[in-house]
Amino acid sequence: MNMLLYIISDAISVYCCYKILERLLVISESKRRQRVLILGCFILIGQIIFIADLANLPPAIILFAGAVHYGCEGSSYKRITLSLMLACSSLALNTIRDTYLMNEILSYGLYSMFWLIFMWWIKRIAPEENHFDLSSQL
Q1: What is the pLDDT of residue 66?
Q2: Which of 58, 22, 55 is nearest to 41 (CA)?
Q3: What is the pTM of this model?
Q4: Within 13 A of 63's CA, how many CA atoms are on the CB side?
Q5: By the 8 A CB rule, do 91 and 61 touch?
Q6: 72-73 and 26-27: which strand pairing?
Q7: Residues 6 or more apart from 50 whose CB is under 8 A from it?
């Protein structure tokens, strides 16, 4: 039962992460690049992070940022900025989930709910098309 909950929660979260990226960046048309991007989302979502965990945190950020850079199109600054913003949000939640939430049903439910709300919020505030640029200071 716990494994099924884990698979469903991660599938929902990876889908939401991919849809957020799809809304904010232009996804490459290549199926191979899309698969790498989905794998990067899965690495980000499934990463176990504890407080002061320096063994898993840097590789997760680097792999996700590399997958976004490879799987999306547009300026490098935009891809790196958005991948770091999404990675930091996700890994902060992973840290809270993995360190403090011991009830697995509550943990997976809250995690999936966070991603669903995050995706809904991005769809509400992001432009319809990917026609926005970073500010001149960035």
Answers
A1: 96
A2: 22
A3: 0.88
A4: 17
A5: yes
A6: antiparallel
A7: 95, 98, 99
Is residue 112 classed as helix, strand or coil in its secondary structure?
Answer: helix
Q: Find all residues with CB under 8 Å of 125, minimum gap 6, and list them.
A: none
What gap in Å lies between CA 101 and CA 78, rounded to an integer?
33
The list of the chain residues with pLDDT below 70 reads 1, 130-138
| Pair of tokens at residue 45 | 């979502």
**Measured in whole angstroms, how far is the alpha carbon of residue 124 from the centre of its chain?**
18
The total number of residues written for the chain in this structure: 138
CA distance 2 to 5: 5
CB atoms near residue 89 (< 10 Å):
16
Say if residues 16 and 114 touch (Cβ distance below 8 Å): no
Burial of 40 (0-12, 13-18, 19+ CB in 10 A): buried
- Tokens representing residue 129 in the block: 């098309």
* Number of other residues whose CB lies within 10 A of the CB of residue 110: 16
